[in-house]
């Protein structure tokens, strides 16, 4: 089966599997004291500059622990209504940090200073949760993309209120590929902490929490342990990231996914029975299929509904999506829509 439902449906890149296999030779220290973890951390410093890095099992764990490093239970977290931390993490950020999420409605999944400012109230008032961190997603859950200047504007706003900026970067690699910038360009925007994703782009498991603001991470080792995100055999996560960051593999894989989304968009846009709801920014396509054909197509090429009220669906491309995959999908859609 070739799925267009999620980039989580893709497999593991062969080089990553090889890295895990090589790390499985002989013994090494546990809980991140192994040589692979030290090398992986250095790779991140080469990529971003002077950062502190910790590894977790998954994206929810990376988000919860990175947010938890910045806040206390009386604080609040500002995000979009569509944010993964608000919609798809089963209340984990609120349960594990004890903090309140302040979700803002947006037309495109992106926060702006103008949308955020009305929520920056009640400071010093004991009856109100105290805003402490803004969380944005790059690329967003709606497939859109923040420019570097837009991120910097939000970071500047956060810092002017003695707050922090967190980025949920489950698809961070896709965003850098789409923007055509460097990781150090991103680091210069003023982001405090990044959840750096890997499993949607060729890794088997594991995410990285990258602290640009190293003052935030003093208690992170305890928060990670309490959150059950400390892996005893850490080398098997770290070894993946060594290979992932070497020779820009992370960027090459993301570029492939993005390029395939563009190719898919170009093939879809001329099919009369399809309505494209927004231009692709990275590796997500949002569209509307005819109601009577949707399940027939889904049975052959899996996808998820996005907005049941409007019948909007989402196609995702992955690092291992090929033109042949897309040509086959398009041929099947055309056979149903003619």
Shape-level CATH architecture of the largest domain? 3-Layer(aba) Sandwich
Rounded to the nearest angstrom, the radius of gyration is 20 Å
Major beta sheet summary: 7 strands, mixed
Order of helices and strands: HHEHEHHEHEHEHHEEHHHEEHEEH
Query: Could you name the CATH class of the largest domain?
Result: Alpha Beta
User: Could you name the CATH topology of the largest domain?
Assistant: Aspartate Aminotransferase, domain 2
The strand count comes to 11
Tell me what you see in this structure:
- The chain folds into two domains: 14-248, Type I PLP-dependent aspartate aminotransferase-like (Major domain) (Aspartate Aminotransferase, domain 2, 3-Layer(aba) Sandwich); 250-337, Alpha-Beta Complex (Aspartate Aminotransferase, domain 1).
- It has 14 helices and eleven strands.
- The chain has helices at residues 14-23, 35-48, 59-68, 84-87, 92-97, 113-116, 148-160, 172-179, 183-187, 220-226, 235-245, 249-268, 291-300, 323-337, and strands at 52-56, 75-80, 100-104, 130-137, 164-169, 193-196, 207-211, 275-276, 284-288, 304-307, 312-316.
- Strand 10 (304-307) and strand 11 form a beta hairpin.
